Amino acid sequence: MLGYSPPPMIDESTVRHVARLARLRLSPEEEQVMQQELSGILGHIDAITSMDLDGVPPTTHVIALENVLRADVPRDSLPREEALREAPDVVDDSFGVPRMD
Amino acid sequence: MALRDLTAAQQLAALAAGETTSLELVDAHLAAVDADPVQAFLAVDADGARARAREIDALPERPPLGGVPIAIKDALSTRDIVTTSGSRMLEGFRPVYTATCVDRLEAAGAIVLGKTNMDEFAMGSSTENSAYQNTLNPWDHERVPGGSSGGSAASVAERQVPWSLGSDTGGSIRQPASLCGIVGMKPTYGAISRYGLIAFASSLDQVGPFARTVEDAALLLRHMVGRDPMDSTSLDWPGEITVPTATDLAGVRVGVVDELMGEGVEPGVRAAVEASLGVMEDLGATVVPVSLPSALSGLATYYVIAPAECSSNLARFDGIRYGHPIPADNLLDQYELTRGELFGPEVKRRIMLGTFALASGYYDQYYGRAQRLRTLIVREFAEAFSGVDLLASPTSPTVAFPLGDRTADPYAMYMADVCTIPVSLAGLPAISLPCGLADGLPVGLQLAGPAFSENRLLDAAHAVEGALAFDTRPPGLMT
Amino acid sequence: MSDFEPVIGVEIHVQLSTHTKMFCGCALSFGDPPNTHTCPVCLAHPGVLPVVNEEAVRRAILIGLALGCEIAPRSIFHRKNYFYPDLPKAYQVSQFDIPICGRGEFVAVRDDGSEIRVGITRAHLEEDAAKLTHLGGRRAGAEESVVDFNRGGTPLVEIVTEPDLRSASDAVTFLRQLRQTLLFLGVSDCSMEEGSMRADANVSIRPVGSHGFGTKTELKNMNSFRFLERGIEAEITRQEGILRDGGRVSQETVHYEPETGHITSLRSKEESHDYRYFPEPDLVPVAPDPGWVGELRGELPELPLALRRRMVGEMGLTAEDAEVLTESPELVAYFMDAAALADPKACANWIRGELRAQLREVGTEPWESRVSPAHIAALVDLLGAGTVSVPAAKEVLAGMIETGEQPDAVVEAKGLAQMDESDLAAVIDALVEANPDQAQQLRDGKDKVIGFFVGQAMKQTNGRADPQAVQRLVRAAVLGD
Questions:
Q1: Beta partners for C122?
Q2: Under CATH, which number does the domain B3-248 receive?
């Protein structure tokens, strides 16, 4: 071993920013591990960032379907008890959420 | 012969001949499910299954799937039967609706015995990412069954059910089928409705069957394919899935993917696959080498696209409409604590990776490029299929590995799907069938075809299966 | 006189009044008990998938055609990712770089007849969020909020304009006429109060004569045109104050408080938005068949701008008549039916004036009343022929509203036919004789007293007299003119 390790592909502040975007609370230890692991994975993935893809269109769907449309005809909705039955916090027949600041 | 040693087709024949009843079949299999030596099941619906068996036994005419039991991967929504997708996020979650493919099988007379273990939200290749339990490989309880549909694969290999359903995003049916010595098939993208399949990566996810014979896999498949008005990406199935009968491969051109036979493939695996290629030639096939230059970039492409889609698909788990939030006095904390606590490490890793790949400033570099690479892979497969009818490769570069062996190195785990991922990216059908043993453990042969070539694939697999006569009984079940 | 010029663009969200939601079969509803119109799809249960409502696509195309937009031959949906409790999937299915309707233009007309040409940037389809109610006060102070998913998933068309508007009043004129156009298309209820039409304004100012753009702020979600106009004005004034004091406008979302007239900044989020748009893999492209688009073009009704031009140019109406009568498609149809049978200008006067005034008292609209357009035309004809006086015609109209009878039947039943001149002259002579003081005042040049005679004459004749004739006859009797 030469004692050289490549610079991480992703820095700590990016890890924290991404975790916030994804609404994941990571402990400081988790952040550190995540930084190493993501850097490792991105190291493998990074090959794609240098390939010549000029003029190659993106593939969003592998199937050639278009215009899959539904007639505007109502279907039965769920009984309210069913809509709410898995909800952890029911308030006034609605889904409760904590305050938002 | 015990009832649970019968294939599904044999069980159907016994039912038709009046030699057994659905209730007897259900009871015989439930006994094995209750014992569950390989820890394949997360939930068992014994009462529901027995009730349904009695109903079917009372019908004047048996439905096509006759009352034969089945196990369902826990990634598929089943009304009133706890569905967790292997995650604590959905602990105790009772869906209000049933997935279309399960609905169709039940309507055809299949009886759901229970839900099988899986890597959390289908992310993994060993089922060790389940939040609940490890599933053991029936061939060696010290080893993984593969994943993510490890429970469904193990339950069929262990003969707790004759067949089961899995889902395959990058190999989650084919790889565990390979590691457990059974047949597993991923159909053409769009062949089977995804409605009710808890999404991992929407542009890749497909439901498919596990069975011990190619014929059984075909039987299950034929009752699931076809357009579903609830899934905009589902396709009208041209014709129908036929029960395969081929016994030779006369005139069939088979391409062997160079890039998937090289370094990284265990010698024992390569040997078994090469032997089965010889058998295919004996059956009349022409076997030629084929190159898919982008196949090896498939892994990197996949590990951008799948996490990106998963980061969005898993955003709905916020503990408001269902689930078990970690209470906090403001919303942001509750979101972050709940998701930080209830998702396992691999799921968090992929959400992070995918969020990063889609984030402003990185999209073009990662997600945008991955989608273009996907185009190249699609094109290469199309080109390959202009010269051959089928492509052959190992399903997994290795046989089943020991539990815990790869959990410390995410990328080593990702390598388990290196042979299956390119086919997934191209949306093509592929089947894995057991083709021999290496060190006493099963090796899988992957056959892939162009879109909608399921019948061709099933026929070819049937012919190879007949010639190889692989014994699907794990050593522990030999009597 | 300001040295600054406002630059305003608007974004309008229009809820489509389809039967079902954008991506599932739940019925749309207003005012039903919470969470009674939901299903696994619009609650974002695990494993569900969206399917596009065809009628929503049809209406989006109609809107695009009415706004002169290019209809994209192939458009796709994207996911817009952000966490909020009213967004159950934590992404909104919307459109991003290939919206269904591309560039267009809408022409609005000011009261003075001058035109406001507003470029349409795009119009795209998306789904509405659910209704979030904050218990116990405003957002920040609320202890808890509750979510009702009935509204969640309602089809929306978002229309985005170029920054082509130069005043708050132009912005509101544009929005009113846009709303009118949407009502004529029958695509939405367009109710600002109920939130089926919502407008945000992007406001910036720049030195007069400059062509660059200043920093813009987004004025959010005003629920009436009046508040929107005031809000934009207040925001312009605020920005002018900042610039005059040598400050800089910061890019932010602002809110107008109608009670105080103040602009407040909505607390800026601690992180900048990063919506991570990517193509929605669960949906396939919408590629409207050109034949279908052509059919829809043929289905477009005559729109308010064209109608108003025709009413003024060909039918002799004033701009104001035209504006009032194009208020709603129903009113236009009513007027057009009447105008086909009688003098259009007279029909316009009677419909927008007396008919609506009388009906307002009983709380109904012309097209819902017992008075048909043909009856209005018949009444106009009676007036034109001199069969009834104007005051009598008003009474006839009251009778028509009450009974639904033809005007001539009402005239006969109530004896409202205009008196002939010799009978009227006798009435006037008697009146002059009975009121010598008033007659003297008239002789003394107090012309206003003529009104007294008219009033008395109308009373005695039960309105059957022609007021013009009364005046003439009184002058003749008193002054010998």
A1: C160
A2: 3.90.1300.10
**Do C113 and C323 form a contact (C-beta atoms < 8 A)?**
no
Residues 6+ apart with CB under 8 A from B478: none
Q: Is C117 in the A-facing interface, judged by CB distances under 8 Å?
A: no
Sequence ranges of chain C with CATH classification 1.10.10.410: 421-479
Which whole number is the average pLDDT over B440-450?
98
What CATH architecture is A1-46? Orthogonal Bundle (1.10)
Cα→Cα distances B339→B292, B320, B323, B410, C148, Å: 39, 12, 11, 20, 23
**The pLDDT of residue A6:** 56
Pair type for strands A69-70 and C52-53: parallel
- ipTM value, please give it: 0.97
Instruction: Among A22, A68, A70, select the one facing B355 at the smallest CB separation.
Output: A22
Taking the Cβ of residue A64 and every Cβ of chain B, the question of whether any pair is shorter than 8 Å is answered with no
B335 with A23: Cβ contact below 8 A:
yes
Q: How far is B323 from chain A (nearest CA, A)?
A: 7
Closest Cα in chain B to C286? B232
| Residues C164-181: tens digit of each pLDDT | 999 999 999 999 999 999
CA C449 vs CA C374, C427, C455, C478: distances in Å: 39, 17, 10, 12
B269-327 pLDDT, tens digit per residue, is: 999 999 999 999 999 999 999 999 988 899 999 999 999 999 999 999 999 999 999 99
Length of chain A: 101
Q: Which residues of chain C have pLDDT under 70?
A: 1, 137-143, 267-272
Please return the burial class of B478, using the count of CB atoms within 10 Å of its CB with bins 0-12, 13-18 and 19+. exposed
Nearest to C19 among A65, A74, A97 (CB): A74
Domain range list for chain B: 3-248
Question: Does residue B264 contact residue B364 with C-beta atoms inside 8 Å?
Answer: no
Cβ neighbours, 10 Å, residue C141:
10
DSSP structure string for B207-258: EEEEESSHHHHHHHHHTTBS--TT-TT--PPSS-PPPP-----TT-EEEEEG
Distance between CA atoms of C169 and B471, rounded to whole angstroms?
Answer: 83
Q: Which chains touch B (3 or more CB pairs under 8 A)?
A: A, C
Calpha distance C171→C164 (Å, rounded): 9
Q: Which two tokens stand for residue B450?
A: 């162009």
Percentages of chain C per state (helix, strand, coil), in multiples of 5: 40, 20, 40
pLDDT tier, A99 (very low <50, low <70, confident <90, very high otherwise): confident
Instruction: Give pLDDT tens digits for B55-68.
Output: 999 999 999 999 99
Q: B93 and A86: CB-CB below 8 Å?
A: yes
pLDDT computed for residue A101 by the predictor: 66
Given a cut of 90, whether residue B466 has pLDDT beyond it is: yes
| CATH label, C421-479, candidates 1.10.10.10, 1.10.10.410, 1.10.1670.10, 3.40.630.10 | 1.10.10.410
Flag if A45 and B300 touch (Cβ within 8 Å): yes
Q: For residue B98, is pLDDT > 60?
A: yes
* For chain A, domain boundaries: 1-46
Query: Which residues in chain A have Cβ-Cβ distances shorter than 8 Å to C33?
Result: 80, 93
Answer whether C197's CB lies under 8 Å from C12's CB: yes
E strand or H helix at B421: helix B421-426
In A, which residues are within 8 Å of C25 by CB distance? 70, 73-75
The pLDDT of residue C139: 43
- Catalytic residue numbers of B? 73, 148, 172
